[in-house]
């Protein structure tokens, strides 16, 4: 047909040099989603040293340090508050003498936090809280810079605990502060080295899972040091959880599956801050979004935002994408997985890897087929397959990246929480779980406003008196919900420090 049309339109077609159809071979370029190093040797079997001869680290490849340093420098441009803290600490070291052991995602953003803590006077040893989220080049840059880092992308479960132990169990070094993301580091110290808590001044925890563990310890009377719940601070809930997930959910899906969202039917399990961010992004892309929820307040918010509230069983046969955002366990179980349609994509955006019952899929009748890094086809005997991302672990940090500016807010909150607990006079904090003081939340927010050339209005003396406020804050009472932060009854019995 094309030659006929070309003659009628006066077009000249180039001569065809393609081979005959039966001999034609199509070769599509394949994207690389794997690590840049081809060395399959386990880092635990290597002897590595940085340029200064220091070997107190275990990473994938120290030769990637220059690349990692450039990644960190890019992140610094989007983390103004941490850079401001460094500048203000030039004459003062509020963390002098602090020995911080950390277990978080090891990314360029975390590197900026670690180097800020060092600038504030702290010594740091670090492991990864997720076996897939480590940026190997960033770990190399940190090791080259003198940090004791034990992490690489694609650790085994045994590697994961080995790295944590190497951070904690070192001769001549005793941590006195813990920065945790998920509670695994805290759990390991309680399990293996409980005597260390005699010298530890406090724990800073930033995840739903880790905070839940801390409240359980507190309720049982087993929490032996003060802990700061960063996860429920306003600057974490309203920014990292909401705005970060609103952007990174799309990034994670695009990188792993190249899926188009327009017209897709999606069910989002959970309408907390993470669920709200995911739903907003998917709706904007033209997806048909369903929500499951247990909390009637969050459920009503979902309805008022225009989403259909359902039970998972009601839609599981028809949806194209399933996303968990609850922080709970066994949200998607084998019964749901068996009933999913062919090609359904399943992932987790909640912190814990317990939301999708992946273990139930590791049975003889099902076939696992690795498509690319962090993407698996799970195939049923009848040929049906689902697409599982990151083996049920956190999608955005396992399969993509997250917006640096939002992480700046969270990282600054973590730094201030460490400073507060480390410098608090004896007796201010008991062996319990606390929220970050409201004044600090407001301070974190104020450090980020200059990026937007934003100008705060100041209260007059008369206005401050009328409202009963200090002109310099805090501007809201601790019970203020910031529009849509759901009420958390487990916080009722905890002290709130102004």
TrEMBL record:
Span list, region Disordered? 29-55
Task: Output the PROSITE patterns linked to this UniProt entry.
Answer: ADOHCYASE_1, ADOHCYASE_2
Q: Where does substrate bind?
A: 107, 181, 206, 236, 240
According to the entry, every stretch annotated as the S-adenosyl-L-homocysteine hydrolase NAD binding domain falls at 241-402
Q: Where does NAD(+) bind?
A: 272-277, 293, 396
Per UniProt, the cofactor note for this protein states:
Binds 1 NAD(+) per subunit.
Gene Ontology cellular-component annotations? cytosol
What superkingdom heads the lineage? Answer: Eukaryota
Q: Which Pfam families match?
A: AdoHcyase, AdoHcyase_NAD
- Does the keyword field hold NAD? yes
Q: Which UniProt keywords apply?
A: NAD, One-carbon metabolism
Which Gene3D superfamilies does the UniProt entry name for this protein?
Adenosylhomocysteinase-like (3.40.50.1480), NAD(P)-binding Rossmann-like Domain (3.40.50.720)
**Names of required cofactors:** NAD(+)
Q: Which InterPro entries match?
A: Adenosylhomocyst_ase-like_sf, Adenosylhomocysteinase-like, Ado_hCys_hydrolase_NAD-bd, NAD(P)-bd_dom_sf, S-Ado-L-homoCys_hydrolase_CS
Gene Ontology BP annotations:
one-carbon metabolic process; S-adenosylmethionine cycle
Q: Which PANTHER family match?
A: ADENOSYLHOMOCYSTEINASE, ADENOSYLHOMOCYSTEINASE 3
Protein family: Belongs to the adenosylhomocysteinase family.
Q: What is this protein called?
A: Adenosylhomocysteinase like 2
Organism expressing this protein natively: Oryzias sinensis (Chinese medaka)
């Amino acid at each position: 047909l094309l030659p006929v049309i070309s003659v009628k339109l006066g077009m000249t077609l180039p001569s065809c040099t393609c081979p005959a159809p039966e001999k034609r071979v199509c070769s599509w370029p394949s994207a690389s989603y794997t690590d840049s190093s081809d060395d399959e040797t386990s880092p635990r079997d290597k002897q590595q040293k940085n340029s200064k001869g220091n070997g107190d680290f275990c990473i994938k490849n120290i030769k990637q340090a220059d690349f990692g340093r450039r990644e960190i420098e890019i992140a610094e441009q989007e983390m103004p508050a941490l850079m401001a803290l460094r500048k203000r600490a030039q004459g003062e070291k509020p963390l002098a003498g602090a020995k911080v052991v950390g277990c978080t995602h090891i990314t360029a953003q975390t590197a900026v936090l670690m180097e800020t803590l060092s600038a504030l006077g702290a010594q740091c040893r670090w492991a990864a809280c997720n076996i897939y989220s480590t940026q190997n080049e960033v770990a190399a840059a940190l090791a080259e810079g003198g940090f004791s880092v034990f992490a690489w992308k694609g650790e085994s479960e045994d590697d994961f605990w080995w790295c944590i132990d190497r951070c904690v169990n070192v001769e001549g070094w005793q941590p006195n502060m813990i920065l945790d993301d998920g509670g695994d580091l805290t759990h390991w110290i309680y399990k293996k080295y409980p005597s260390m808590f005699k010298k530890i001044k406090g724990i800073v925890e930033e995840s739903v899972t880790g905070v839940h563990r801390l409240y359980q310890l507190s309720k049982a009377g087993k929490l032996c040091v003060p802990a700061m719940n960063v996860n429920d601070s306003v600057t974490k809930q309203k920014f990292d959880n909401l705005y970060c997930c609103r952007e990174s959910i799309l990034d994670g899906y695009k990188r792993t599956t190249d899926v188009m969202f327009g017209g897709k039917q999606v069910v989002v399990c959970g309408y907390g801050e993470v669920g709200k961010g995911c739903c907003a992004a998917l709706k904007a892309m033209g997806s048909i979004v369903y929500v499951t929820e247990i909390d009637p307040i969050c459920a009503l918010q979902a309805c008022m935002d225009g989403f259909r509230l359902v039970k998972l069983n009601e839609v599981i046969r028809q949806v194209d994408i399933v996303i968990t955002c609850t922080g709970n366990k066994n949200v998607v179980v084998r019964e749901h997985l068996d009933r999913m349609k062919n090609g359904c994509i399943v992932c987790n955006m909640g912190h814990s890897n317990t939301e999708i019952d992946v273990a139930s899929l590791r049975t003889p009748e099902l076939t696992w087929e690795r498509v690319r890094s962090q993407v698996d086809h799970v195939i049923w005997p009848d040929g049906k397959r689902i697409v599982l991302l990151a083996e049920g672990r956190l999608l955005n940090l396992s399969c993509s990246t997250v917006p640096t500016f939002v992480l700046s807010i969270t990282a600054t909150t973590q730094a201030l929480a460490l400073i507060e607990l480390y410098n608090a006079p004896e007796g201010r904090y008991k062996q319990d779980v606390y929220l970050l003081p409201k004044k600090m939340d407001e301070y974190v927010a104020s450090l980020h406003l200059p990026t937007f050339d934003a100008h705060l209005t100041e209260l007059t003396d008369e206005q401050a008196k009328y409202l009963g406020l200090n002109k310099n804050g805090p501007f809201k009472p601790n019970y203020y919900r910031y529009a849509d932060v759901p009420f958390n009854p487990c916080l009722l019995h905890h002290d709130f420090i102004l």
